[in-house]
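Obj: model holo form, ligand = iron/sulfur cluster.
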Amino acid sequence: MNSISRRRFMKISAATISLAAAGCALKSGTSSLGTKEKRKGIQKIPTYCDICFWKCGAIAYVKDGELWKIEGNPDDPLSRGRLCPRGTGGIGAHTDPDRLRTPLIRKRDRGEEVWQEVTWDEALGHIADKMQKIKSEYGPEAMALFSHGIGGNFLKHTLNAYGTPNISAPSFAQCRGPRDVGFRLTFGEDVSSPERTDIKNARCLVLIGSHLGENMHNSQVQEFADAIQNNASIIVVDPRFSVAASKAKWYLPIKPGTDLALLLAWMNVIVKENLYDKEYVTKHGFGFDQFAAELLPYSPEWAYTETGIEPDVIRETAREMGRYKPATLVHPGRHVTWYGDDTQRSRAIALLNALLGSWGRKGGFYYPISMDVPAYPYPAYPKPAREKVDNPNQKYPFAHETITTGIREATLTGQPYPVKGWFVYATNLIHALPNEEETIKAIQNLDLLVVVDVIPSEIAGWADVVLPESVYLERHDDLNVEWFRDPFTALRQPVVESPQDQKPNWWIAKELAGKLGLGSYFPWNDVEEYFKHRLTAAGLDYDELKKKGVIRGKKQPNYFEEGVPVEFPTPSGKIEFYSLQLQKAGFDPVPKYTSPEQNPPGSFRLLYGRAPVHSFSRTQSNRILSDMMSENEVWVNSSIAGRLGLQNAQYVTLKNQDEIVSNRVKVKVTERIRPDCVYLVHGFGHTSRGLRHAFRKGASDAQLLTRYNTDPLMGGTGMNNNFVTIEPAEA
Ligand SMILES: Nc1nc2c(c(=O)[nH]1)N[C@H]1C(S)=C(S)[C@@H](COP(=O)(O)OP(=O)(O)OC[C@H]3O[C@@H](n4cnc5c(=O)[nH]c(N)nc54)[C@H](O)[C@@H]3O)O[C@H]1N2
Ligand SMILES: Nc1nc2c(c(=O)[nH]1)N[C@H]1C(S)=C(S)[C@@H](COP(=O)(O)OP(=O)(O)OC[C@H]3O[C@@H](n4cnc5c(=O)[nH]c(N)nc54)[C@H](O)[C@@H]3O)O[C@H]1N2
Ligand code: SF4
Ligand SMILES: [Mo]
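Output (holo structure tokens):
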């Protein structure tokens, strides 16, 4: 037995003992320690998934010492005992032969991907020296952290202790930011994540480009199936006939970028025909009359010219929504950074829900509850001398989270002050931020780029120091105490040992803090001590959590009718149909429509989205998931394919308005998309050489998104503003 498998053997034995101590049912054969036989048998270890950020509770099975399979944890409210296909294939992350194995320091120019393997001590020492130098030359605010997901929590703590306020995630300005701002401006609260959408109880469900079923957020997809089973009336608005559209009573193939016209026309009909919830609106609404007056010009006939949706269909679908109110849920979407006017479109969605009385009501938006697990009592952070760098002078007045692209801008320009170091955790900025060239130029201004990843992603290729993390099945992470229908706390815990010299984020954060002289910020010795402290403060038992993976709290009321106090934390204390906040800041108090830019002749608007078996740009290297889908296709309408002489499955390249040419990609000739746009699944077309299995398979949407329109309210980057032409490629 070599030393690695010996270490792993010992570790699994230890896990076996602790499970036995916790009273877990173990197969015979695992109880006799000290011989090879003791690894025989099956262990079930609860944890939660990390193939996306939904954090479904799972049970991992270890068979004869090897990771075998992973299933949903029946006690977990998010998974309800079932994982999505990505979660089930998650074990491929552990066995991926292309994983990062050891810390690396760059040997040649940035981006050349030539490295020196170093020890953790050397890598973290090098990073700490550079960070101290940046602090003394430019101040601690010159370091920024980009992170995505719960794994970033401990590194955020280290960076806060170091003294920087510049901490951001792409989930705001490249994802759900406009939606959360639009809903805040209307109801005073976010939709947030997991979304507080009562899909399973909706009698009428309206999906505006929320492609549930391809967008695989587990609980939502399960509830969508419930809604279908309950014969909910489903209305889908999408330029592409999505999987969700195939379940719909009404499918509206809208012209891309015109949804606000449809929303205004729907509201026009609902007000004009008195289909709204009058009692709710009168009791809870602010500025309804001014709002109603603004809707007058937006008739279905007017909207038809913008959207291509027949006036009768607009009227009929508006009546359908009115019929089932308040159990009509107009889904707010999640990735809504489409055109740059996204906050106002999201606000229109919020207003439509307000008219239907769905906020706080069964079948609409429920009131979520989280468990009260106090934060660890750390020492106070130093107060940064300067404001965050991303949003100087509150240029984007309604941004309530940090804008990734604002940090990038400051790194490029040195204004309002220079940014000299990026710490990047679990976000592939080359695929996640629009305009790759701007990202690379910004990187050239840095004195330090650290990337913590599990595979050699594109952003890792640009790093000065690469730190290999243990995958989620090999580590602990912070407690999941997110809100949902009922309160719960879930634990991620190691199932198997890391195969090489990978380390968990909490260890990296703590060790780095030590080297920065910030050891007092990590008073606990290991992460289990941290868990015990927090759980004890909450009156919960760590051993129970380890054994079950999840502890559920008491059911509490979720709707106004059940006794949730009716509260709208807006300036007026009511639902703001007319927004004085927006007016004061120089924006439209009720959303106003402007037409999107027309396609340049001969070109197609590039749209993109999800496939059920992949997450972003992070799973294409996973051998199990890539077996199900190894490259993406470009969806092209049949009439266009005929005109261009394109055959199904033929390879083409896409060229965008800025002459950027994609990798070759197969054509999917289909009636399921409008002729004015094409569609790619996001995350393919990898260019990192270390991703041997995913390298240059399919085309990258990100590479083609060179243009973006910035939302003036909150700094989100609308990315559906790119146009491509199609050229045949060699086979
Ligand atoms: N062009 C384009 N851009 C987009 C989108 C799009 O559809 N198209 N979608 C937007 C949306 S909605 C979002 S939320 C963001 C998502 O943006 P990101 O969250 O940045 O998504 P990924 O590009 O998959 O980057 C995740 C990175 O984390 C690494 N990783 C995976 N597991 C681990 C782990 O356990 N530890 C560590 N340290 N690293 C890990 C992966 O290898 C990968 O490099 O992107 C946004 N940007
Ligand atoms: N399998 C899987 N599921 C995921 C993820 C994943 O990576 N993989 N990521 C998760 C994350 S973080 C997010 S944010 C969500 C994203 O998922 P969603 O929030 O559902 O949406 P998008 O990706 O923006 O939407 C893509 C859909 O919008 C349509 N669309 C494009 N332009 C327009 C338009 O102008 N009008 C209308 N009405 N529709 C349009 C596209 O045709 C496509 O069907 O998915 C989540 N679920
Ligand atoms: S939705 Fe799927 S990938 Fe995401 S956490 Fe749940 S099981 Fe994992
Ligand atoms: Mo997202």
